[in-house]
Amino acid sequence: MSREAEWQVRAAAWELLALSLRYPDEVLAEAIASGEWEAAAAEIA
Description:
mainly alpha, 0% strand, elongated
């Protein structure tokens, strides 16, 4: 994957993350409590 493509994927992932934090729901709360959200954030970074 080129650096530009990698940057685009990361940018899209961070936009989705921002939206999920802006409009939290029960699914997000469960993902945070279970550690799933932290694992996904580490994968992005």
